[in-house]
Amino acid sequence: MMKKIIIVGGSKGIGNAIIKSLLPSNFVVNLSRTTPEITHDNLEHHKIDILNDELPYIEDADVLIYCPGSINLKPISRLTLDNFRSDFDINVIGAVRSIQKYLPVLKNSKYPSILLFSTVATELGMPFHASVAASKSAVEGLGKSLAAELAPSIRVNIIAPTVTNTTLAANLLRNEKAIQNMQERHPLKMILEPEDVAEMVKFLTSNGAAGITGQIFKLDCGIVSLKS
């Protein structure tokens, strides 16, 4: 069965990989400031700023995926209150705006679900991650609360990836040596590619995951729970 999927932030990185993964068998509505470099009969794009623009009317939808995020890594002494506010806005307030807008539409679906994104830094204490870990922890709290509130009609889950090879993580993966060092920190001696995350998304938004809600999935290459 073809589903209609709303994805916020699908123009780059993980979001873009998700669109490519879902397009062949679903109709995807992308909301982002930049247009994805993809053309497909099953893709509809709306150019919007998720924090400031009015969100477009969408008549029906089965899935909402909220992808925007931030990697604002600084010592606490250099993080301003505006840094914390900015990270919270893009990670939490944007998600809340999207959910509130499209919740009535999702409730009309036969198999509706919402998917949010966190980070392994919420559980694994990491230097310089105070701002992003604080906002992503809020995302996890939001997701689990909504999973309880919206059951049994709407499933809500969260994916918490480790470092993923995207432009957002370019400063962490700035050269081959940095990439190798990051891989060595993980028990599986690898980092994620966007396509790895997209595969998890594909499963969690499918009917095969009908019994899963309120979960935080750590795509962590072992770094959270294993000693390398």
Structure description:
With 228 residues, this protein is α/β, with parallel strands linked by helices. It has a single domain (3-164, 194-219), classed as Rossmann fold, CATH 3.40.50.720. The chain contains five helices and seven strands. The chain has helices at residues 13-22, 81-106, 130-150, 176-185, 194-204; strands at 3-8, 26-32, 43-47, 63-66, 113-117, 155-161, 216-219. The protein has a seven-stranded parallel sheet with strand order 3-2-1-4-5-6-7, with helices on both faces. The protein is globular, with a radius of gyration of 17 Å.
Layout: helices, strands, pairs:
Layout: E1 3-8, H1 13-22, E2 26-32, E3 43-47, E4 63-66, H2 81-106, E5 113-117, H3 130-150, E6 155-161, H4 176-185, H5 194-204, E7 216-219
Helix content: 25-40%
Number of domains: 1
CATH superfamily: NAD(P)-binding Rossmann-like Domain
Low-confidence stretches: none
Sequence of strands across the biggest β-sheet: 3-2-1-4-5-6-7
What structural class is derived from the secondary structure elements?
A: alpha/beta
How would you describe this structure in keywords?
single chain; 228 residues; alpha/beta; Rossmann fold; 34% helix; globular
Quick summary:
With 228 residues, the chain is α/β, with parallel strands linked by helices.
